[in-house]
């Protein structure tokens, strides 16, 4: 299996939320309202980290193709929702170390995104929930290794691996479970990778390799190692 990434995500949520500016300009400190916004604006180090996040985000929005930029905006909103929910869970209390860790985590993710990845599925792909690794073989087979966690509440975790054929640019990866094989389809759209999950039967609910309501399905961005 590949690199495990969900533990940092969970720890940040539990510790105090995922702080990140909601726009490409960063936090407007003249209009700061939430506890995290006020904490960032009151601390030069945190404000510098927030600016770093905003700078990387703004650059990507300009470099990505329109559909991929739209997907990044959605990923950023998902990330910021996690911030708000986690802050509410702690009655608005935040700690500098927690905010610093989460800002650095987000900045590194944004800075590692490849705006114009090479064709094909191979590589490491990430979003606000998790990371997956795909490897194409010369025999047109694709191996899958993935980990994810709900970035809003950590109510579910996903961990799975499998392989399947590559046909016309789309991989169909079989993930064996006690209830039968789930199929994870992977295909490219611009700079992003889309994943979808197909159950072995119409009666299946959440994938057994995830917690309740957990999914790998979504849009991912290729990142540098």
From TrEMBL:
Keywords in alphabetical order: Plasmid, Signal
Asked whether the UniProt record includes Signal among its keywords, one would answer yes
Return the InterPro entries for the record.
LprI-like_N, Lysozyme_Inhibitor_LprI
Q: Where is the signal peptide?
A: 1-24
Q: Name one Pfam family in it.
A: LprI
The yes or no answer to whether the keyword Repressor is present is no
On the tree of life, the source organism's domain of life is Bacteria
List, for all copies, the residue spans of the domain called Lysozyme inhibitor LprI-like N-terminal: 29-87
List the protein's name: Lysozyme inhibitor LprI family protein
Q: Which organism is it from?
A: Shinella oryzae
Q: What is the lineage of its organism?
A: Bacteria, Pseudomonadati, Pseudomonadota, Alphaproteobacteria, Hyphomicrobiales
